[in-house]
Amino acid sequence: MLGTMTVSTPLTRADVAAMIDHTLLAPEATPADVEALIAEARRLGVYAICVSPSMLPVRAPGLVVATVAGFPSGKHHSLVKGAEARLAVDQGAAEVDMVIDVGAALAGDFNAVLTEVITVREAVEDRAVLKVIIESAALTDQAIVGACRAAEQGGADFVKTSTGFHPAGGASVHAVKLMAQTVGGRLGVKASGGIRTAEDAAAMIEAGATRLGLSKSAAVLDGFAE
């Protein structure tokens, strides 16, 4: 059901569902929308839901609850990102996806990126999985590598491609492959932004993604065999 795409190991619907953060980060989202997201997540059998921090706390038994910090611009003071992340964890988030200062990465100031990752890591301690969004479509290859190295050095558990809100675009196979090569299996790699089909998802997984951030999870999963 993946068209002409060839994958090294056939991916099943359950395999892919277990990698998905089913995501709702639209600014107009309502509590009813979040409840619908949770119900759909349960029906699809995905790993986690990801919602805006203002929607916390939520009741989602059987699902991992993820949220974001410094979203979507990353142009928040690192202490604000840390405080936002800490509050989210206090309200039940088990995972936090923080956005770096993309401009710092573009300027080659990876010490600034490192400092803010450390700040958020220290804020949540070991109570949450920390994913670092580098906005890869807006970065050069050199900046992608530098940002991933800073994320690893700062104590992140994952590097993540995109917020899905940047005009430069979302995840690409090239970026995912480069990120996966840089972290070398020591960190997870989350591909997010613009993944709307089974072919897209399979390509990201083949490139090295270990988690997928999707808002169109049902459409993607419908392209995989049981």
TrEMBL record:
<dbReference type="InterPro" id="IPR013785">
    <property type="entry name" value="Aldolase_TIM"/>
</dbReference>
<comment type="pathway">
    <text>Carbohydrate degradation; 2-deoxy-D-ribose 1-phosphate degradation; D-glyceraldehyde 3-phosphate and acetaldehyde from 2-deoxy-alpha-D-ribose 1-phosphate: step 2/2.</text>
</comment>
<dbReference type="Pfam" id="PF01791">
    <property type="entry name" value="DeoC"/>
</dbReference>
<keyword id="KW-0704">Schiff base</keyword>
<keyword id="KW-0456">Lyase</keyword>
<feature type="active site" description="Proton donor/acceptor">
    <location>
        <position position="97"/>
    </location>
</feature>
<dbReference type="GO" id="GO:0006018">
    <property type="term" value="P:2-deoxyribose 1-phosphate catabolic process"/>
</dbReference>
<dbReference type="InterPro" id="IPR028581">
    <property type="entry name" value="DeoC_typeI"/>
</dbReference>
<dbReference type="InterPro" id="IPR002915">
    <property type="entry name" value="DeoC/FbaB/LacD_aldolase"/>
</dbReference>
<dbReference type="GO" id="GO:0004139">
    <property type="term" value="F:deoxyribose-phosphate aldolase activity"/>
</dbReference>
<keyword id="KW-0963">Cytoplasm</keyword>
<protein>
    <recommendedName>
        <fullName>Deoxyribose-phosphate aldolase</fullName>
        <ecNumber>4.1.2.4</ecNumber>
    </recommendedName>
</protein>
<feature type="active site" description="Schiff-base intermediate with acetaldehyde">
    <location>
        <position position="160"/>
    </location>
</feature>
<feature type="active site" description="Proton donor/acceptor">
    <location>
        <position position="190"/>
    </location>
</feature>
<dbReference type="GO" id="GO:0005737">
    <property type="term" value="C:cytoplasm"/>
</dbReference>
<comment type="function">
    <text>Catalyzes a reversible aldol reaction between acetaldehyde and D-glyceraldehyde 3-phosphate to generate 2-deoxy-D-ribose 5-phosphate.</text>
</comment>
<dbReference type="GO" id="GO:0016052">
    <property type="term" value="P:carbohydrate catabolic process"/>
</dbReference>
<comment type="similarity">
    <text>Belongs to the DeoC/FbaB aldolase family. DeoC type 1 subfamily.</text>
</comment>
<dbReference type="InterPro" id="IPR011343">
    <property type="entry name" value="DeoC"/>
</dbReference>
<dbReference type="GO" id="GO:0009264">
    <property type="term" value="P:deoxyribonucleotide catabolic process"/>
</dbReference>
